[in-house]
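Collaborator request log, item 7. Partner lab (contact: R.S.) asked for a structural prediction of Glyoxylate/hydroxypyruvate reductase B to inform their binding assays.
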Amino acid sequence: MSAASSPQTARLCRLDLWLNPVFDEIIGATPGVSLSVLPARGDDARTLAGLKSAHAYHVSAAKDELPRQWFVNADLIAQCPDLVCVSSGGAGYDTIDVAACTAAGIAVVNQAGGNAESVAEHTYALLLAVQRRVVESHQRLRHDAGFTREDLMGHEIHGLVLGLVGIGKIGTSVARIARGFGLRVIAHDPLLSADAIRDRGAEPVSLDELLARSDVVSLHCPLDASTRGLFGAKAFAAMKRDAVFLSTARGGIHDEAALYDALRAGHLRGAGLDVWEQEPPERDAPLLGLPNVVATFHTAGVTHEARRNVARSSATQLVAMLRGERPPQLVNPEVWPLAAERIANLA
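Returned to partner:
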């Protein structure tokens, strides 16, 4: 935007939820941008007043961390007439109604790729823990006696067929690492061409073929209307007997009750789960009671390195947008001409 049309200070807000300090460092070093850190809880009037006057909003991507009233939905947008750009604090954007933002001329960015290596590594942590019965062995060493090593015999992953549902930045990292383990990688991604999937290190297949061929099925797709409930009883039944199911994607893509039934029936060998419909799940959640389930608390992308990358990416994209520059990770690219016009006319 031109200097003549620029506001004296662009107003950026975030809540006081934990965020790597590099975000505040970048914003604080940017001339013409002021940062307000508002309370997530305890003073709703102050927080709403801050958001009502904000031009930009960095919002947590964690739906179970962020109080519902601070989700970027139509109700909040209606109260924030100056809001022109929103940045999700992660690759996901469950806390943002993208359609409502697009209708209001608000550009939305995520931080896809910022945590890709961490999530990819965690995928293999879950796979190896399931195949080699790591948690079960740990628990038996702590609490049991009189068992043999053969009682805890596991399986190699070398030579298995790994089926990736989604091969974006995270899936591409998973495919790259697979070569070192001697895995054969196939992938289904309706958003990519067959050539693009090959370029990312996998053989393109239909979802039905992926389920039929894979020894390991790993989810790396977003949660949206097309993927919610994608893995239910029918999909689990279509998987190979003794296959392993992994998800570091989003809760809600797989049906937890159907997965429990497939595991209890012995159709699937095991599951590694980082994501849940409710996070954290109840301690008596049925899946947590199965010895062949390895569970984590949506921590695949929660490393020091990933959180720093995501915070830096978010701050950098917000600054770019407030300067009128198109950011690299637009979730709703169709809105950019209108959003750029709104940014140019900020007052």
